[in-house]
Amino acid sequence: MEGVAGPVRRAVVVEDDRDIRELITHTLTDLGLEVTAVDAGPDGVEAVRRLRPDLVTLDLGLPGIDGIEVCRQIREISDAYIVMVTARADEIDRLLGLETGADDFMAKPFSLKELQARVNAMFRRPRPSVTPVGDPDVLVHGGLRVDVPARRVFRDGQELPLTRTEFELLAELMRSPTKVATREDLHTAVWGTPWIGDTHVVEVHVGNLRRKLGGSRYIRTVRGVGYRMEEPA
């Protein structure tokens, strides 16, 4: 079985169903992660604050504070990868979960092998190679400046609070700003594996990224194909 390479990573599992919580814990432990499991949203937020994990799996249907609110609170204090896990698999819940900053979504029941594959893919996400623009580790496009090693993004000199996924999408588009990237290309580049299914996950994250960039000023939709960077004004 393939494990997660490199230094030991931490995970927090937030799941109120004991059987599922134990299954996810064992699955992530098999990948070499140090896992802390809790059964309530506030405990999950506190565990993230205290442990600074690399990965969080989060049940949407938690009692009390639901997973959407927990995800918002976690995203305010952490850039950990967040995988939303839920039995409520309709499209509205899926989009709501992603708009709060979740990186991936899995519907119950799910395959533990699929969970392992998705976690491995997230941790293998390639860091964008950079075409030199003055400083070889900085991408510049119009008023945007992306410092790749520091993982910081500035718009007109003001730093933007992007999630990991939003950062990697923007950097991928800025690598070749005049090239149209298909939704499938972006999923392969950012998530690490080809996407077999719909492309809503890419569309939602691009929509979130656009809002943080201030609208459609920087990213253009090429209808029926994908996205490319807008020509600087």
Question: How would you describe the overall organization of this protein?
Answer:
- This protein is α/β, with parallel strands linked by helices.
- The chain folds into two domains: 10-123, Rossmann fold (3-Layer(aba) Sandwich), CATH 3.40.50; 138-229, Arc Repressor Mutant, subunit A (Orthogonal Bundle).
- 39% of the residues lie in helices and 21% in strands.
- It has eight helices and twelve strands.
- The protein has helices spanning 18-30, 41-51, 67-77, 91-99, 112-123, 164-175, 183-191, 200-213, and strands at 10-14, 34-38, 55-59, 81-86, 104-107, 138-141, 144-147, 152-155, 158-160, 181-182, 219-222, 226-229.
- The strands form three sheets. A five-stranded parallel β-sheet has the order 2-1-3-4-5, sandwiched between helices. A four-stranded antiparallel β-sheet has the order 6-7-8-9, with helices on one face.
- Strand 3 (55-59), helix 3 (67-77) and strand 4 (81-86) form a beta-alpha-beta unit.
- Helix 2 runs parallel beside helix 3, helix 6 packs across helix 7 (183-191) and helix 6 (164-175) crosses helix 8 (200-213).
- The longest helix has 14 residues, at 200-213.
- The chain is globular and about 50 Å long.
- The protein starts with 9 loop residues before the first strand and ends with a strand.
- 36% of the residues are buried.
- Residues 1-5 and 126-135 have low confidence and may be disordered.
